[in-house]
Amino acid sequence: MVMNTDIYFRIYRGTSLLLFFSTLIIGCKQKPESKKVEKTPIQEHIQIIKNIPEGITTPNGMVWIPGGKFNQGAVKNDTMIMKHETPTHPVSVDGFFMDITEVTNAQFKKFVDVTNYITVAEREIVWEEMKKQLPLNTPKPHDSILQPGSLIFKKTRERVPNLFDYSQWWLWKIGANWKHPLGSESSIEGKDKYPVVHIAYEDALAYCKWAGRRLPTEAEWEYASRGENKNAIFFWGNDIKNLSSYANTWEGEFPLQNTKADGYENKAPVCSYPPNSYALYDMAGNVWEWTQDWYNTTYYNQLKQQGLTHNPMGAEKPYNPNNPALREKVIKGGSFLCSDSYCASYRNSARMATSMDSSLEHLGFRTVLSVDMINTSDKK
Fold first, then answer.
1. Domain covering 12-27+42-373: architecture
2. Could you tell me the residue ranges of all domains in the chain?
3. Residue range 47-72: mean pLDDT, rounded
4. Whole-model pTM?
5. Three-state secondary-structure class, residue 110
6. Secondary element (H or E) of residue 97
Protein backbone atom coordinates (compact mmCIF):
# COMPACT_ATOMS: atom_id res chain seq x y z
CA MET A 1 0.00 0.00 0.00
CA VAL A 2 1.34 3.42 -0.87
CA MET A 3 0.46 6.89 0.30
CA ASN A 4 -2.23 8.68 -1.68
CA THR A 5 -3.43 12.27 -1.64
CA ASP A 6 -5.68 12.56 1.36
CA ILE A 7 -8.50 14.62 2.76
CA TYR A 8 -7.21 14.55 6.30
CA PHE A 9 -4.39 17.05 6.18
CA ARG A 10 -4.72 19.16 3.08
CA ILE A 11 -7.28 21.79 3.94
CA TYR A 12 -6.40 25.48 4.28
CA ARG A 13 -3.25 26.60 6.17
CA GLY A 14 -1.62 23.18 6.20
CA THR A 15 -4.99 21.69 7.12
CA SER A 16 -5.40 22.73 10.70
CA LEU A 17 -8.79 21.06 10.76
CA LEU A 18 -7.36 17.56 10.16
CA LEU A 19 -10.60 15.56 10.33
CA PHE A 20 -13.11 18.37 10.71
CA PHE A 21 -14.02 18.71 7.07
CA SER A 22 -13.21 15.17 5.92
CA THR A 23 -16.76 14.00 5.34
CA LEU A 24 -17.64 17.21 3.55
CA ILE A 25 -14.75 16.93 1.16
CA ILE A 26 -15.56 13.32 0.41
CA GLY A 27 -19.00 14.41 -0.74
CA CYS A 28 -17.66 16.91 -3.26
CA LYS A 29 -17.49 15.60 -6.80
CA GLN A 30 -16.21 17.24 -9.90
CA LYS A 31 -16.03 15.98 -13.45
CA PRO A 32 -12.89 16.68 -15.46
CA GLU A 33 -13.35 18.77 -18.54
CA SER A 34 -13.03 16.76 -21.69
CA LYS A 35 -10.39 18.40 -23.78
CA LYS A 36 -9.27 17.37 -27.21
CA VAL A 37 -5.52 17.42 -27.48
CA GLU A 38 -3.99 17.94 -30.87
CA LYS A 39 -1.01 15.70 -31.38
CA THR A 40 2.18 17.60 -31.94
CA PRO A 41 4.81 15.91 -34.10
CA ILE A 42 8.20 15.25 -32.58
CA GLN A 43 10.33 18.28 -33.31
CA GLU A 44 13.86 17.07 -33.76
CA HIS A 45 14.96 20.56 -34.77
CA ILE A 46 14.62 21.84 -31.21
CA GLN A 47 18.02 22.95 -29.95
CA ILE A 48 18.37 21.63 -26.43
CA ILE A 49 20.70 23.62 -24.18
CA LYS A 50 23.04 20.87 -22.99
CA ASN A 51 26.19 22.61 -21.81
CA ILE A 52 26.74 25.73 -19.73
CA PRO A 53 26.67 28.71 -22.11
CA GLU A 54 29.97 30.50 -22.55
CA GLY A 55 30.66 33.21 -20.01
CA ILE A 56 28.32 31.82 -17.36
CA THR A 57 29.72 30.51 -14.09
CA THR A 58 28.04 28.07 -11.74
CA PRO A 59 26.43 29.88 -8.78
CA ASN A 60 27.61 28.94 -5.31
CA GLY A 61 25.75 25.94 -3.92
CA MET A 62 24.38 24.87 -7.28
CA VAL A 63 25.33 22.39 -9.99
CA TRP A 64 24.70 22.40 -13.74
CA ILE A 65 22.19 19.82 -14.96
CA PRO A 66 22.97 19.16 -18.66
CA GLY A 67 19.90 19.27 -20.90
CA GLY A 68 18.62 16.22 -22.71
CA LYS A 69 15.73 13.83 -23.28
CA PHE A 70 14.14 11.17 -21.08
CA ASN A 71 10.93 9.26 -20.54
CA GLN A 72 9.05 10.87 -17.67
CA GLY A 73 7.03 8.54 -15.46
CA ALA A 74 7.39 5.04 -14.05
CA VAL A 75 9.80 2.58 -15.61
CA LYS A 76 8.50 -0.83 -16.68
CA ASN A 77 10.41 -2.92 -14.14
CA ASP A 78 9.10 -0.89 -11.17
CA THR A 79 6.81 -3.10 -9.07
CA MET A 80 5.58 -0.14 -6.99
CA ILE A 81 4.10 1.91 -9.82
CA MET A 82 1.14 4.14 -8.98
CA LYS A 83 -1.41 4.97 -11.64
CA HIS A 84 -0.68 8.70 -11.59
CA GLU A 85 2.94 7.96 -12.58
CA THR A 86 1.67 6.72 -15.95
CA PRO A 87 1.60 6.81 -18.89
CA THR A 88 5.30 7.32 -19.46
CA HIS A 89 5.87 10.08 -22.01
CA PRO A 90 8.92 11.54 -23.81
CA VAL A 91 10.23 14.87 -22.56
CA SER A 92 13.22 17.09 -23.30
CA VAL A 93 14.54 19.82 -21.02
CA ASP A 94 17.12 22.55 -21.42
CA GLY A 95 20.06 22.54 -19.06
CA PHE A 96 19.70 24.47 -15.81
CA PHE A 97 21.37 25.03 -12.45
CA MET A 98 19.92 23.31 -9.40
CA ASP A 99 20.62 23.58 -5.68
CA ILE A 100 22.93 20.80 -4.59
CA THR A 101 20.86 20.38 -1.43
CA GLU A 102 17.44 21.17 -0.11
CA VAL A 103 17.21 24.74 1.21
CA THR A 104 18.51 24.63 4.77
CA ASN A 105 17.45 26.31 7.99
CA ALA A 106 20.49 28.58 7.76
CA GLN A 107 19.66 29.67 4.22
CA PHE A 108 16.03 30.33 5.01
CA LYS A 109 16.96 32.24 8.17
CA LYS A 110 19.17 34.53 6.14
CA PHE A 111 16.20 35.28 3.88
CA VAL A 112 13.90 35.95 6.85
CA ASP A 113 16.49 38.14 8.62
CA VAL A 114 16.81 40.34 5.53
CA THR A 115 13.15 40.53 4.55
CA ASN A 116 11.29 40.00 7.86
CA TYR A 117 9.14 37.49 6.01
CA ILE A 118 6.45 35.66 7.99
CA THR A 119 5.57 32.17 6.81
CA VAL A 120 2.04 30.90 6.35
CA ALA A 121 2.30 28.67 9.43
CA GLU A 122 3.11 31.73 11.57
CA ARG A 123 0.24 33.93 10.39
CA GLU A 124 -3.01 34.60 12.19
CA ILE A 125 -5.87 32.59 10.75
CA VAL A 126 -8.70 34.75 9.41
CA TRP A 127 -11.88 32.71 9.15
CA GLU A 128 -13.49 34.97 6.53
CA GLU A 129 -10.57 34.27 4.21
CA MET A 130 -10.24 30.64 5.18
CA LYS A 131 -13.83 29.68 4.41
CA LYS A 132 -13.42 30.90 0.81
CA GLN A 133 -11.17 27.89 0.27
CA LEU A 134 -13.65 25.40 1.72
CA PRO A 135 -16.96 23.88 0.62
CA LEU A 136 -19.97 26.17 0.89
CA ASN A 137 -21.61 26.35 4.33
CA THR A 138 -18.70 24.73 6.13
CA PRO A 139 -19.20 25.55 9.83
CA LYS A 140 -16.59 27.57 11.68
CA PRO A 141 -14.48 25.45 14.05
CA HIS A 142 -13.73 26.46 17.62
CA ASP A 143 -11.34 29.38 18.12
CA SER A 144 -8.95 27.07 19.98
CA ILE A 145 -8.27 25.36 16.66
CA LEU A 146 -8.02 28.50 14.54
CA GLN A 147 -4.53 29.43 15.70
CA PRO A 148 -1.24 29.53 13.79
CA GLY A 149 0.46 26.18 13.56
CA SER A 150 1.31 23.27 11.31
CA LEU A 151 1.24 19.48 11.15
CA ILE A 152 3.84 17.33 12.86
CA PHE A 153 4.39 13.59 12.79
CA LYS A 154 3.70 11.41 15.81
CA LYS A 155 4.53 7.73 16.16
CA THR A 156 1.70 5.46 17.19
CA ARG A 157 1.73 3.33 20.32
CA GLU A 158 0.45 0.23 18.58
CA ARG A 159 0.16 -1.29 15.15
CA VAL A 160 -2.02 0.50 12.63
CA PRO A 161 -4.15 -1.85 10.53
CA ASN A 162 -5.62 0.96 8.41
CA LEU A 163 -2.89 2.94 6.67
CA PHE A 164 -5.44 5.05 4.82
CA ASP A 165 -6.31 6.96 7.98
CA TYR A 166 -3.47 9.46 8.11
CA SER A 167 -4.91 11.24 11.13
CA GLN A 168 -3.45 8.41 13.22
CA TRP A 169 0.07 9.81 12.83
CA TRP A 170 -0.44 13.48 11.99
CA LEU A 171 -1.01 16.02 14.75
CA TRP A 172 -2.05 19.65 14.33
CA LYS A 173 0.40 21.52 16.55
CA ILE A 174 -0.23 25.13 17.47
CA GLY A 175 3.07 27.01 17.34
CA ALA A 176 4.76 24.61 14.91
CA ASN A 177 6.60 26.39 12.10
CA TRP A 178 10.01 26.51 10.44
CA LYS A 179 11.66 27.96 13.56
CA HIS A 180 9.87 25.53 15.87
CA PRO A 181 9.52 22.27 13.91
CA LEU A 182 7.84 20.34 16.72
CA GLY A 183 5.96 23.22 18.32
CA SER A 184 6.81 26.31 20.37
CA GLU A 185 8.91 24.28 22.81
CA SER A 186 11.29 23.17 20.04
CA SER A 187 13.91 25.09 18.05
CA ILE A 188 16.36 24.77 15.18
CA GLU A 189 19.35 25.80 17.27
CA GLY A 190 22.34 23.75 16.15
CA LYS A 191 20.45 22.55 13.05
CA ASP A 192 21.65 25.02 10.45
CA LYS A 193 22.36 22.23 7.97
CA TYR A 194 18.98 20.55 8.28
CA PRO A 195 16.41 21.14 5.53
CA VAL A 196 13.91 23.87 6.36
CA VAL A 197 10.38 22.48 6.76
CA HIS A 198 6.81 23.68 7.43
CA ILE A 199 7.14 25.61 4.19
CA ALA A 200 3.94 26.34 2.25
CA TYR A 201 4.07 26.97 -1.48
CA GLU A 202 3.77 30.72 -0.99
CA ASP A 203 6.77 30.64 1.35
CA ALA A 204 8.90 28.79 -1.19
CA LEU A 205 7.99 31.31 -3.89
CA ALA A 206 8.88 34.23 -1.62
CA TYR A 207 12.31 32.74 -0.98
CA CYS A 208 12.83 32.12 -4.70
CA LYS A 209 11.96 35.71 -5.56
CA TRP A 210 14.43 37.02 -3.01
CA ALA A 211 17.17 34.67 -4.18
CA GLY A 212 16.59 35.30 -7.89
CA ARG A 213 15.63 31.66 -8.42
CA ARG A 214 12.48 29.65 -9.08
CA LEU A 215 11.03 26.28 -8.21
CA PRO A 216 11.78 23.44 -10.63
CA THR A 217 9.14 22.08 -12.95
CA GLU A 218 8.17 18.49 -12.26
CA ALA A 219 9.94 17.41 -15.45
CA GLU A 220 13.14 19.22 -14.46
CA TRP A 221 13.03 17.72 -10.98
CA GLU A 222 12.59 14.15 -12.20
CA TYR A 223 15.16 14.57 -14.98
CA ALA A 224 17.70 15.83 -12.45
CA SER A 225 16.83 13.13 -9.92
CA ARG A 226 17.48 10.35 -12.40
CA GLY A 227 20.98 11.61 -13.04
CA GLU A 228 22.89 9.95 -15.85
CA ASN A 229 20.87 6.72 -15.63
CA LYS A 230 17.48 7.80 -16.97
CA ASN A 231 15.88 4.34 -16.85
CA ALA A 232 16.49 3.28 -13.24
CA ILE A 233 13.86 3.01 -10.51
CA PHE A 234 16.02 4.80 -7.93
CA PHE A 235 18.75 7.37 -8.52
CA TRP A 236 21.34 4.78 -7.49
CA GLY A 237 19.98 1.98 -9.68
CA ASN A 238 17.32 -0.71 -9.34
CA ASP A 239 18.29 -2.48 -6.11
CA ILE A 240 16.09 -1.49 -3.18
CA LYS A 241 18.47 -3.30 -0.83
CA ASN A 242 20.71 -0.24 -1.05
CA LEU A 243 17.98 2.10 0.21
CA SER A 244 19.37 2.66 3.70
CA SER A 245 22.76 3.59 2.27
CA TYR A 246 21.38 6.24 -0.08
CA ALA A 247 18.30 7.78 1.51
CA ASN A 248 16.71 8.83 4.79
CA THR A 249 13.41 6.91 4.89
CA TRP A 250 11.29 4.91 7.34
CA GLU A 251 12.58 1.39 7.88
CA GLY A 252 10.60 -0.83 10.16
CA GLU A 253 6.87 -1.03 10.85
CA PHE A 254 5.26 2.29 9.99
CA PRO A 255 4.24 4.32 11.96
CA LEU A 256 5.06 2.30 15.07
CA GLN A 257 8.78 1.57 14.96
CA ASN A 258 11.68 2.91 12.95
CA THR A 259 14.77 0.70 13.03
CA LYS A 260 16.93 3.67 11.97
CA ALA A 261 18.89 1.42 9.64
CA ASP A 262 19.79 4.55 7.68
CA GLY A 263 21.04 6.32 10.81
CA TYR A 264 18.11 8.67 11.42
CA GLU A 265 14.54 8.48 12.67
CA ASN A 266 13.52 12.00 11.68
CA LYS A 267 15.13 14.53 9.34
CA ALA A 268 18.84 14.29 8.58
CA PRO A 269 21.32 17.09 7.84
CA VAL A 270 21.72 17.66 4.12
CA CYS A 271 24.59 15.76 2.48
CA SER A 272 24.27 12.88 4.97
CA TYR A 273 23.99 10.38 2.11
CA PRO A 274 25.80 9.94 -1.23
CA PRO A 275 24.72 12.23 -4.07
CA ASN A 276 23.37 11.08 -7.41
CA SER A 277 25.47 11.18 -10.56
CA TYR A 278 24.71 14.90 -11.02
CA ALA A 279 26.11 15.63 -7.53
CA LEU A 280 22.64 16.33 -6.08
CA TYR A 281 21.95 15.29 -2.49
CA ASP A 282 18.73 13.97 -0.96
CA MET A 283 16.80 13.54 -4.20
CA ALA A 284 15.21 10.59 -2.40
CA GLY A 285 13.91 10.75 1.16
CA ASN A 286 14.59 13.30 3.91
CA VAL A 287 11.87 15.84 3.00
CA TRP A 288 9.39 16.26 0.16
CA GLU A 289 10.14 19.09 -2.26
CA TRP A 290 7.81 21.54 -3.99
CA THR A 291 7.68 21.85 -7.76
CA GLN A 292 5.86 24.59 -9.66
CA ASP A 293 3.49 22.24 -11.55
CA TRP A 294 -0.22 21.92 -10.87
CA TYR A 295 -1.29 18.42 -9.92
CA ASN A 296 -3.74 17.21 -12.56
CA THR A 297 -4.60 13.53 -12.96
CA THR A 298 -5.23 13.95 -16.71
CA TYR A 299 -1.96 15.72 -17.49
CA TYR A 300 0.28 12.73 -18.20
CA ASN A 301 -2.25 11.42 -20.71
CA GLN A 302 -2.25 14.79 -22.46
CA LEU A 303 1.54 14.77 -22.72
CA LYS A 304 1.50 11.22 -24.05
CA GLN A 305 -0.76 12.31 -26.91
CA GLN A 306 1.46 15.25 -27.76
CA GLY A 307 4.59 13.23 -28.34
CA LEU A 308 7.96 14.69 -27.39
CA THR A 309 7.40 17.78 -25.23
CA HIS A 310 10.12 20.36 -24.70
CA ASN A 311 10.35 22.06 -21.30
CA PRO A 312 6.81 21.14 -20.17
CA MET A 313 5.44 23.61 -17.64
CA GLY A 314 2.76 21.42 -16.11
CA ALA A 315 -1.02 21.38 -16.43
CA GLU A 316 -2.91 24.61 -17.07
CA LYS A 317 -4.99 24.08 -13.95
CA PRO A 318 -5.25 21.63 -11.05
CA TYR A 319 -7.58 18.64 -11.02
CA ASN A 320 -7.74 15.83 -8.50
CA PRO A 321 -10.98 13.81 -8.30
CA ASN A 322 -10.05 12.76 -4.75
CA ASN A 323 -9.70 16.36 -3.57
CA PRO A 324 -11.72 18.49 -6.01
CA ALA A 325 -12.00 21.46 -3.64
CA LEU A 326 -8.25 21.93 -3.34
CA ARG A 327 -5.63 23.60 -5.52
CA GLU A 328 -2.68 21.26 -5.39
CA LYS A 329 0.90 21.29 -6.63
CA VAL A 330 3.15 18.34 -7.38
CA ILE A 331 5.77 17.48 -4.78
CA LYS A 332 8.63 15.08 -5.41
CA GLY A 333 11.28 13.02 -3.65
CA GLY A 334 9.59 11.42 -0.66
CA SER A 335 10.64 11.98 2.94
CA PHE A 336 11.92 10.41 6.15
CA LEU A 337 8.40 8.98 6.57
CA CYS A 338 8.38 6.99 3.33
CA SER A 339 8.03 3.27 3.98
CA ASP A 340 7.67 0.39 1.54
CA SER A 341 4.40 -0.47 3.29
CA TYR A 342 2.59 2.72 2.38
CA CYS A 343 4.74 5.39 0.73
CA ALA A 344 7.47 4.13 -1.55
CA SER A 345 8.10 7.63 -2.84
CA TYR A 346 11.87 7.43 -2.82
CA ARG A 347 11.56 6.33 -6.46
CA ASN A 348 12.42 8.78 -9.28
CA SER A 349 8.92 8.71 -10.78
CA ALA A 350 7.03 8.99 -7.47
CA ARG A 351 4.85 12.09 -7.12
CA MET A 352 2.30 13.47 -4.71
CA ALA A 353 -0.33 16.19 -4.66
CA THR A 354 -0.27 18.78 -1.89
CA SER A 355 -2.44 21.86 -1.44
CA MET A 356 -0.60 25.14 -1.82
CA ASP A 357 -1.36 26.21 1.74
CA SER A 358 -0.07 23.00 3.31
CA SER A 359 2.89 23.18 5.66
CA LEU A 360 4.16 19.99 7.22
CA GLU A 361 7.10 18.63 9.15
CA HIS A 362 8.37 16.69 6.13
CA LEU A 363 7.94 19.29 3.36
CA GLY A 364 10.64 21.64 2.06
CA PHE A 365 12.09 22.69 -1.30
CA ARG A 366 15.13 23.44 -3.44
CA THR A 367 15.55 26.02 -6.19
CA VAL A 368 16.72 26.14 -9.78
CA LEU A 369 18.17 28.80 -12.07
CA SER A 370 17.64 28.61 -15.81
CA VAL A 371 19.78 30.31 -18.44
CA ASP A 372 17.13 32.96 -19.11
CA MET A 373 17.38 34.02 -15.44
CA ILE A 374 21.14 34.40 -15.24
CA ASN A 375 21.01 38.18 -14.86
CA THR A 376 19.20 37.75 -11.57
CA SER A 377 21.65 38.23 -8.70
CA ASP A 378 22.58 35.28 -6.55
CA LYS A 379 21.87 36.19 -2.92
CA LYS A 380 22.17 32.81 -1.32
1. Alpha-Beta Complex (3.90)
2. 12-27+42-373
3. 97
4. 0.87
5. helix
6. strand 96-99
